[in-house]
C-alpha cells in the first residue's frame, strides 16, 4: 500500500482492525445515502456486535443506516469466512428529467475489503414508467447463472413481480448490451469476492420507454457479430402471463438472425406463448416455428408467456448480425426503381454518341497514317535509283571527289534536293510504317 493511499484512507475513514483474543474489531464510516447489511451466511457461533462495552448488542446480522461512523466487533477471529456484506444505495428516478448515476466505488468501504461484498442500487421510477441503465461505455454480456466473470465482477438485474422476484439476468463487463430497462422499480447489483478491490465505474440512469417488465437493448457493431441471451430466471421459468422485450440495433445494410438454442415450452392453461418480432413489419410466431433467419434493420423480439398450468418456459437464444452483401443491396435498388428508368435511358445514348466521335477521330488518324506510309513508300522506291543513305552517298561521292567535274551534275543535284526528305522518311519509317 502506498503512502498516499494510506493517508487517504486515514483521512476519509477510520480504519482500525484489531485482533484481540480471537475477536476482530473494525470501524467503518458510512456514506449517508447508503445502508449496510452485514449477515452471517453460516450457522456458526460468530456474532457481530455494536455499542459501548456496557450496552453492547450482538447478533447474527446487523443493519446499519442513518449513522456516520460505527465500530463493529466480531466475536471470532475470521469473520470474513462467515459474514457477507451488502451495501445498498437508492436511486430515485421518479422525476421526468431523472438523471442519476450508479457510481461504482468502494473507497468508503475499504475496512470491509476482506468480506464478500454486494453493491446494490435500488432503482425507482414513477408508476407505469420505466428506469433505464446505460451501459454504452463498458457494455455487458449475459452469462449463465453458474458462470463466473473473468474479472470477478458479476452484475445482477432483478425486479419484483407478482409471481415473486425475477432475475432478468446475470452479466459480465464487456459485451453488446448497451442498456437495460425495468418497469417501476428493481435492483441492479454487483458482487465481488472477498479481498477483490472494486473497479471504479459509472452508469447513467434515466427514464426509459418500455411498458414491459424488462427490456434489454443490444447494439451490434458493423460486420459480423453475435450474442447469446437467456430468458429471465433461466434455467427456471419465465414469469407467468407476462412479456419481456429485447431490442437489437444494427447499422445500415445489416441483417439479424435469431436462433433458438434451447427451449423449454410451458404448459398453457390460457392464451398462447409466442414470439413477436417488431421491425419494419410485425410478425408473430409460435415458439416452435422456425425463427426468422434474416431480418434487415433494427428489430425487437418480445417473448410472451401464456397463463401457465405448470411452470416451464425457458429459452436460450442466439442473435447474429452480418452485412447485407453489396450485390444484394444493388439488386434490390435495381428492382425497386423501374419507374426511374427514363433518366437512365439517356445515359446509353450519350455513350453511343461519345463512342461515334471517338471512332471517327481514330478512323481519320488511321487513314492519315496510311496515306503518309504510301507517299513515303513511293518516294523510297524512287530514291532507290539514287543514293538512299549517307553511307551510299559517301562511297559514291568519295571516288569521284578527285574529279568532281566528271560527276554527273544531275545526280548530285537530285541528292542535295532530297536530303531533307531522306532524313524525314527514316523517322517516319521507324515511327509509323
Ligand atoms: C437502429 O437504431 C439506432 C438507434 O436509434 C440508429 O442509430 C440506427 O441508425 C438504426 N439502424 C437502422 C438500420 O435503422
TrEMBL record:
This protein's record includes keyword Transmembrane: yes
Keywords: Membrane, Signal, Transmembrane, Transmembrane helix
Domain (CDCP1 third and sixth CUB) ranges: 216-316
UniProt KW Transmembrane keyword: yes
Name this protein carries in UniProt: CUB domain containing protein 1a
InterPro entries, per database record: CDCP1, CDCP1_CUB_3rd_6th, CUB_CDCP1_1st, CUB_CDCP1_2nd_5th, Sperma_CUB_dom_sf
Chain segments annotated as transmembrane: 351-376
One Pfam family per UniProt: CDCP1_CUB_6
Signal sequence, start to end: 1-23
Lineage per the UniProt record: Eukaryota, Metazoa, Chordata, Craniata, Vertebrata
Organism of provenance: Anabas testudineus (Climbing perch)
Domain CDCP1 first CUB: residue ranges: 25-93
PANTHER family reported for this sequence: CUB DOMAIN-CONTAINING PROTEIN 1
Amino acid at each position: 500500500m502506498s503512502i498516499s493511499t494510506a493517508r487517504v484512507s486515514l483521512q476519509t475513514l477510520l480504519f482500525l482492525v484489531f485482533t484481540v483474543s480471537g475477536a476482530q474489531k473494525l470501524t467503518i464510516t458510512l456514506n449517508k445515502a447508503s445502508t449496510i447489511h452485514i449477515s452471517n451466511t453460516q450457522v456458526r457461533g460468530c456474532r457481530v456486535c455494536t455499542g459501548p462495552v456496557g450496552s453492547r448488542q450482538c447478533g447474527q446480522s446487523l443493519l446499519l443506516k442513518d449513522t456516520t461512523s460505527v465500530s463493529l466487533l466480531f466475536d471470532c477471529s475470521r469473520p470474513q469466512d462467515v459474514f457477507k456484506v451488502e451495501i445498498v444505495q437508492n436511486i430515485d428516478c421518479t422525476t421526468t428529467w431523472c438523471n442519476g448515476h450508479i457510481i461504482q466505488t468502494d473507497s468508503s468501504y475499504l475496512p470491509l475489503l476482506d468480506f464478500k461484498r454486494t453493491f446494490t442500487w435500488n432503482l425507482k421510477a414513477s408508476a407505469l414508467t420505466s428506469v433505464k441503465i446505460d451501459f454504452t461505455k463498458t457494455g455487458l454480456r449475459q452469462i449463465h447463472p453458474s458462470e463466473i466473470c473473468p474479472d470477478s465482477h458479476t452484475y445482477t438485474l432483478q425486479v419484483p413481480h407478482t409471481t415473486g422476484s425475477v432475475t432478468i439476468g446475470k452479466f459480465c463487463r464487456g459485451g453488446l448490451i448497451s442498456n437495460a430497462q425495468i418497469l417501476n422499480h428493481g435492483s441492479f447489483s454487483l458482487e465481488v469476492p472477498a479481498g477483490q478491490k472494486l473497479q471504479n465505474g459509472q452508469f447513467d440512469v434515466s427514464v426509459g420507454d418500455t411498458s414491459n417488465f424488462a427490456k434489454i437493448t443490444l447494439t451490434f457493431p458493423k460486420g459480423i457479430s453475435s450474442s447469446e441471451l437467456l430468458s429471465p430466471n433461466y434455467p427456471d421459468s419465465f414469469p407467468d402471463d407476462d412479456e419481456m422485450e429485447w431490442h437489437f440495433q444494427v447499422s445500415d445494410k445489416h441483417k439479424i438472425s435469431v436462433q433458438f438454442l434451447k427451449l423449454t415450452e410451458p404448459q398453457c392453461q390460457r392464451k398462447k406463448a409466442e414470439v413477436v418480432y417488431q421491425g419494419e413489419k410485425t410478425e408473430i410466431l409460435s415458439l416452435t416455428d422456425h425463427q426468422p433467419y434474416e431480418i434487415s434493420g433494427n428489430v425487437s423480439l418480445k417473448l410472451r408467456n401464456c397463463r401457465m398450468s405448470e411452470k416451464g418456459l425457458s429459452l436460450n437464444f442466439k442473435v447474429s448480425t452480418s452485412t447485407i452483401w453489396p450485390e444484394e443491396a444493388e439488386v434490390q435498388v435495381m428492382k425497386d426503381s423501374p419507374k426511374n428508368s427514363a433518366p437512365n435511358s439517356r445515359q446509353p445514348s450519350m455513350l453511343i454518341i461519345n463512342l461515334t466521335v471517338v471512332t471517327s477521330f481514330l478512323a481519320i488518324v488511321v487513314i492519315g497514317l496510311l496515306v503518309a506510309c504510301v507517299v513515303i513508300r513511293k518516294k523510297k522506291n524512287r530514291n532507290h535509283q539514287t543514293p538512299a543513305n549517307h553511307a551510299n552517298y559517301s562511297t559514291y561521292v568519295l571516288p569521284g571527289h578527285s574529279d568532281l567535274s566528271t560527276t554527273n551534275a544531275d545526280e548530285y543535284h537530285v541528292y542535295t534536293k532530297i536530303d531533307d526528305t531522306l532524313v524525314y522518311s527514316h523517322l517516319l519509317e521507324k515511327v509509323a510504317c
